[in-house]
Design brief:
alpha/beta; six-stranded mixed beta sheet
């Protein structure tokens, strides 16, 4: 790619906008970076005015495929098979998406402005003007995973518990939070207080995405493909993306872009851990029976009781159906010895069979999850809770029962 030149802001001659702009000239193509506020009616008006000016022949926006699909089709979850979501291990991401959506809804109710209105305006106006629409942001799931892997393990719990607390709180959204939303999206504003002080968090959340979006433009709208591209981004990305444009970009940006989508695979030890636990527990049973039959059956009984009770109690907290609770009690001790299937999967499957979500559960889902009790009232979100809490209960039961077996075999009172 050729070296960039910052030029005067010229689109639409004297069109004024409320947000900042930078214009980058690369060869025959001009890129107008429009910094928007994600909670601002003025930013949405800016987007409409610029697209309607006729100055642009392509529009790029700070959205990924999944967020674009959610914004363009807010009822998309209605058409998804919940059982497949659990089978594919996507329950956590769906729950996180609902939690972030709940935060957006609170902001909308308090401010009267729907976050992301400027992106919705870009979708509508580009479609009406029949302009190519380029989605340039990295998938939100990849960003969350890279955040998770980038921060030290001892900070992960406080980080995500803070995220969960902020999006589920029923307190009014503070003026400071709304101001942060004017610079970045919901994810950025939620993590901003951490990111400001943590390079390990700032890198995957902000700077990597600055680079990623410029690389996507290099792929989808390289110099010469379009005459003038409008790039709609949060104002917090404007400076970083402009700086990325000032450095020569690779002729083949795909490899670098794909590298920014990678997440470190689990370590061999982490992948082997469930099987190691299974081997250790079964070995414990064998040692117990080798000493005497009574001890062996005592260990088996304690394994089933501890694992079953903790898992069943967790589903009870989720207000699962009584038969789901009973099924989890009997399934958890067995699934804990079979790493290919989890107690949460069994619990969610039984709950779906007994309490299949109705149309109204999907239609009210996004509103219900804006308050804590709504997660239990709605059958869709409650099934997600059943899955996650049963999984946590089974994990706790495995460790508690495992240490109990070790104590019985090798403790000071062991024969």
């Amino acid at each position: 790619m050729t070296d960039p030149q910052d030029t005067a802001i010229q689109p639409g001659a004297d069109l004024a906008t409320s947000g900042p702009r930078r214009v980058i000239q690369l060869g025959e193509t001009r890129y107008t970076l429009l910094g928007t506020a994600h909670v601002s009616a003025e930013s949405a008006d800016d987007v409409r005015a610029l697209i309607r000016s006729g100055e642009f022949d392509a529009v790029a926006i700070e959205l990924c495929d999944s967020r674009h699909h959610s914004l363009d089709n807010p009822d998309a979850l209605n058409n998804q098979d919940l059982f497949e979501i659990f089978r594919q291990g996507k329950a956590g991401m769906v729950a996180a998406s609902l939690a972030l959506g709940a935060f957006q809804q609170r902001v909308a109710e308090q401010s009267g402005i729907e976050p992301g209105a400027e992106m919705r305006a870009a979708l509508e106006e580009s479609r009406q003007a029949e302009l190519p629409l380029l989605l340039i942001d990295r998938d939100v799931g990849v960003t969350l995973k890279r955040i998770y892997h980038n921060v030290p393990w001892w900070q992960r719990f406080s980080l995500f518990s803070g995220l969960l607390g902020s999006v589920l709180s029923r307190q009014d959204v503070s003026a400071e939070e709304i101001e942060r939303l004017k610079e970045g999206d919901v994810l950025e504003s939620t993590f901003s207080e951490f990111a400001a002080e943590s390079e390990t968090l700032y890198t995957p959340l902000i700077s990597e995405r600055d680079r990623y979006m410029v690389l996507r433009l290099a792929e989808e709208a390289p110099p010469g493909r379009y005459r003038h591209v409008l790039v709609v981004i949060g104002a917090g990305h404007l400076k970083g993306m402009a700086e990325e444009f000032e450095t020569p970009l690779p002729e083949a940006p795909t490899a670098e872009r794909e590298a920014l989508e990678e997440t470190p695979p689990p370590s061999k030890l982490w992948r082997a851990l469930p099987w190691l636990v299974t081997v250790l527990v079964l070995t414990g049973f064998a040692i117990g029976f080798s000493r005497n039959t009574e001890l062996g059956w005592q260990l088996v009984g304690e394994w089933f009781l501890i694992n079953g009770v903790l898992s069943a109690a967790a589903t009870l907290v989720a207000l699962a159906h009584p038969l789901t609770v009973a099924a989890t009690f009997f399934a958890a001790p067995l699934t804990s010895l079979n790493p290919t299937i989890g107690a949460g999967f069994v619990a969610a499957g039984v709950e779906l069979w007994l309490r299949k979500p109705k149309v109204r559960d999907f239609s009210t889902l996004r509103h219900d999850v804006t308050e804590l009790k709504g997660w239990w009232r709605n059958r869709v979100s409650r099934t997600l809770l059943v899955f996650m809490l049963a999984t946590l209960g089974s994990a706790a039961g495995t460790w508690v029962a495992g240490f109990r077996i070790a104590g019985a075999l090798f403790g000071s009172g062991a024969a």
